[in-house]
Write a structure and sequence with these properties.
With about 200 residues, this protein is of the alpha/beta class. It is built from 7 helices and 6 strands, in the order ααβββαβαβααβα.
Length: about 200
């Protein structure tokens, strides 16, 4: 074979696409294939996906099929349904889908105790980026494992609850109330009660 033929053959490899099932087989072989099950939560049942690195996703969807579709859209791989959740669900996390900044934000949010809240500005300051308050909010909105990494415990500096990665501010309010956070008396208020 001459050099020109070799170069032509190598260029043609760029047009060859692996079958879609190849990625799934490789991920399964190395223990990174995702499984999923249902977890009861204050919002009702949520779907939780995990692999050997830890929990990779938490989503509230109407059905397992919708969960599989949304998971595949976001992570570009298909989860397989499991018989039950692992006993250590929520102790380890697969955060390969986020940037280093987003990972720092999520890990800092994980430190907020149940029944307490912190502000976006507090997280920004704690991770060494005090001017990145909006970026903190964006990172929390992208949280792939809301509920287990408690981004719901982060509120605006003015006491307003803000949005939530697992279904908006009404769900955030419900989870905070479930955890014992004092909210303004009005059932429609979107503020945390200030002392």
């Amino acid at each position: 074979m001459n050099d020109r033929q070799l170069l032509r053959d190598l260029r043609q490899l760029g047009a060859v696409h692996a079958p879609p099932s190849l990625l799934q087989h490789v991920l399964d072989d190395v223990g990174l294939g995702d499984r999923y099950g249902v977890l009861d939560s204050p919002l009702g049942p949520v779907f939780v996906a995990w692999n050997r690195l830890g929990v990779s996703a938490v989503m509230k969807t109407a059905s397992a099929a919708e969960f599989e579709e949304r998971f595949a859209e976001r992570f570009h791989r298909k989860p397989k349904q499991a018989a039950k959740l692992p006993t250590d669900v929520g102790e380890r996390f697969d955060l390969r889908s986020v940037t280093e900044f987003e990972r720092a934000v999520l890990l800092k949010a994980r430190e907020i105790p149940r029944g307490e809240v912190r502000t976006y500005a507090w997280i920004a300051s704690q991770i060494g980026h005090p001017a990145a308050v909006r970026a903190v909010g964006s990172a929390l909105r992208k949280n792939p494992v809301p509920l287990l990494i408690p981004c719901h415990r982060v509120v605006r500096s003015d006491g307003y609850i803000g949005e939530y990665a697992l279904g908006g501010s009404a769900n955030k309010r419900a989870i905070l109330a479930f955890e014992g956070v004092k909210l303004d008396a009005s059932p429609t208020s979107q503020r945390v009660k200030t002392v």
